[in-house]
């Protein structure tokens, strides 16, 4: 039910008033967390904001300007499938700018320091049956043909069967710093072929971003193999499979030739309807290949050079052009530019205001651990009119930590955020089933501990998706709904600042959550009163069959940085109670002590699928002040 839906407020079934004690057995520490009396089907006040609706937003989404395989096209396809109305693009700022990205790889060894500041590693991979493979690095002392080139990689392969045999050296920069956008990128490589025929070749292979299915082309990453030798004449491009192409280059045997590659232009030329600027350099490899028993392919590679037109604000301009390009193809999804500020610890989401890429000249390629750098970045976001989001609070490590290590991480993060007051951020990424080794419960606990200490953070659900392949089936697939009048950025930012949002699993929840008090929207806001009891009206519509709504109540006792275990109790209400009362139920909350109240929807399997933001019910003005956006009106 949206805010504009009219219901028979006084026609709800008459259900006896029932009082429930919220989780008395779960109270931790002295004093408890009080009680909530739930009145099912009680008389309700009409929704006071009939012009509001829940706008479904995908936040923290990466595409071809970040290090993953996702393209903007792929992400928009998933957003449209999932009914997302607004997609916030949040590519990493320093990756958009190609900050400290690899520029020159000399081919001097398996692990080398490039001409800039980036470490580069080669990884050997063999495909097919070979009677011999050569992989080594040479110098002019042993190979005079290098000339003035100080180093080179020698690659060779001898096929042992009738199928294609490949000898591959896959290259990767430290911190994935070669995975930059192909927009405006030129790749040059020095090549010295020794053994290339119609049955053998050398190749420079560029694997680009994942794309959804196009007509007869399946969904996949797209690869271009730039070849010297093979069956095609120089200048000819052919498809070797639906998402793979071979472009034959002119490089004579027995001498050095510098080949110049423009993958973005080639993508657009080879696959009609594909915009090659919406692509990343996802994988890069040098190859020697041969087909047929006894056939030999081989030669030398040197001086791999990457040049990129990514200075200043050009990457944002490229992104805006692509947004316009996809606008007609995805009319149901509104695209909004944002950015993930990623050379800070933590990473920071920048939503709204005047988005700009920072100038990182002189900074290193890895995130600063200096808290003052993060504080300055939050200040810059606020000065530009935006809101700052505290991204993946436990970091980005993959895998799940043991229960003991998760508890250690949870307690440490609680202490940190209370000590620095979450760096002044407006939002906290809570909706992760598993991130940085910690599960959803640990994320909730950190959020609640901040609420306990009057750190007013809007919890949001995000995906941090880098693939664009299957949002519904992904482990990380939370979206955020904003109660807003429209999809204008100003309306959405206002909802985020005020906490007028809820979040959940896009595959398992499509309902609505809200809380009102005295006929006024209360979710996300702060109410200060000396009353010992206050009544809240809960909206919970579109609940999954067999689901429940848990009402969580936590103390706001300013426990400080050392006491990190939130004092919370909860009570469960069956979805049937809301169905019997036109989706809304009133509750009486014990406010003899300051507290906060939030909602959790669990499905029939007891899996949490949706979360409201809290309403803070305080007895005294907050010690650190009350943000004007969160002041409860009325």
Characterise the protein shown here:
The protein is an alpha+beta fold and about 625 residues long. The chain is built from nine helices and 37 strands. Strands 2, 3, 18, 26, 27, 30, 32, 33, 35, 36 and 37 form an eleven-stranded mixed sheet that branches.
First-residue to last-residue Cα separation:
23 Å
Helix content: 10-25%
The largest pleated sheet is described as: 11 strands, mixed
- From the helix content, strand content and strand pairing, which structural class follows? alpha+beta
Number of separate helices: 9
Q: Would you report the number of β strands?
A: 37
Give the overall average pLDDT: 91
- Catalogue the unreliable spans: 1-33, 40-49
Beta-strand content: 35-45%
Shape: elongated
Rounded radius of gyration (Å): 29 Å
Which terms would index this structure?
634 residues, alpha+beta, eleven-stranded mixed sheet, eight-stranded mixed sheet, 9 helices, 37 strands, elongated, disordered N terminus
Short description:
This protein has 634 residues and is of the alpha+beta class.
Helix and strand arrangement:
Blueprint: E1 36-39, E2 53-61, H1 72-81, E3 86-89, H2 93-96, E4 104-105, E5 111-113, E6 119-127, E7 130-138, E8 152-159, E9 164-173, E10 186-195, E11 200-211, E12 220-229, E13 237-241, E14 244-248, E15 257-261, H3 263-270, E16 283-291, E17 296-307, H4 314-327, E18 334-337, E19 339-341, E20 348-351, H5 371-383, E21 387-390, H6 403-420, E22 427-431, E23 434-435, E24 438-439, H7 440-452, E25 458-461, E26 478-484, H8 489-498, E27 501-505, E28 512-517, E29 520-521, E30 526-528, E31 533-541, E32 548-555, E33 568-574, H9 575-579, E34 584-590, E35 595-602, E36 608-612, E37 615-618
Parallel strand pairs: 2-3, 3-18, 12-14, 21-22, 22-25, 30-37
Antiparallel strand pairs: 1-34, 2-26, 4-17, 5-6, 6-9, 7-8, 8-17, 9-16, 10-15, 10-17, 11-12, 11-16, 13-14, 19-20, 20-21, 23-24, 26-27, 27-36, 28-29, 28-31, 31-34, 32-33, 32-35, 35-36, 35-37
